[in-house]
Amino acid sequence: MMKYLPERHCRIASELELSSGDEEHAIPGYVCSVPTKVMPPGLFVRESYEAWVEIAEKFPEAKGILVNSFTCLEQNAFDYFARRPENYPPVYPVGLVLSLEDRPSPDQRDRVMRWLDEQPESSIVYICFGSLGILEAPQIKEIAKALDLTGHRFLWSIRTNPAEKATPYDLLPEGFSDRTASRGLVCGWAPQVEVLRHKAIGGFVSHCGWNSVLESLWFGVPIATWPMYAEQQLNAFTMVKELGLAVELRLDYVSAYGEIVEAEEIAGAIRSLMNGGDTPRRKVKEMAVAARKALLDGGSSFVAVNRFLDELIGAEF
């Protein structure tokens, strides 16, 4: 996308328009055309759009670009940049770069992990929207209703606004905790790496932050996409449409716009994720194996790191 933005700006020197949401963009490295509605929300605001373009225009001046991904995951994109289009700097796929150690929070961690240990294998849908994914009460009620509709076991991490001093349980519909006590756990913070590693986890309803995407792939857990902000809409589109590695809940949702996703839609995505034949579970498991191979001696990311170091040592930066 950062290669595409200056090219588009030369033709159309203005921010993207929400009204042209279905207009498509031929972004270098993508097989699929990318609709406007899944581009980062900042590109629809003049000030932030101009900042994005200004940064993107500096990319050709770089000596190299390190990308937290690996060749097998985004083969078409890395093949494109390997051809060095228009003398663009070399792109090095050096991922996955992940921290597999969670931040310490012993009280919550132990409670969550003890509960997971008691659950059947691949039975739990994990719901979490990242550290900044704070939802309003009406949306939380729709998610709760969806969990009532599906009957699935669940682990739900609800982040609350620190300024309001509310607990996750304050936001739940009346009676929800009692109805779901035998099959669900609600928490605030969750040790996500340990959660995704656990054999009880069968699916992940995610905001599609890139770290969460990579963690889910590393542990072979399929995602249902519900982006919130930043570049997450494009990540969701990439995972569902470009790579076929996720189930679509939403691709173009932006939390700041205030839309409420209704329970029936959420429940349908959870059913597809946990039960449906269209869940890309096998493909995600294969990608987990490929991710590990990429990091081994001779793997694609291992080779890319060495190539970058050779360039770094041998060139005058």
TrEMBL record:
Lineage summary: Eukaryota, Viridiplantae, Streptophyta, Embryophyta, Tracheophyta
UniProt entry tagged with the keyword ATP-binding: no
Protein name in the entry: Uncharacterized protein
Keyword presence, Kinase: no
PROSITE patterns: UDPGT (PS00375)
Key words of the record: Glycosyltransferase, Transferase
MF terms in GO: UDP-glucosyltransferase activity
Residue ranges that the Swiss-Prot or TrEMBL entry lists as coiled coil: none
Source species: Arabis nemorensis
Family label: Belongs to the UDP-glycosyltransferase family.
Xref: Pfam families: UDPGT
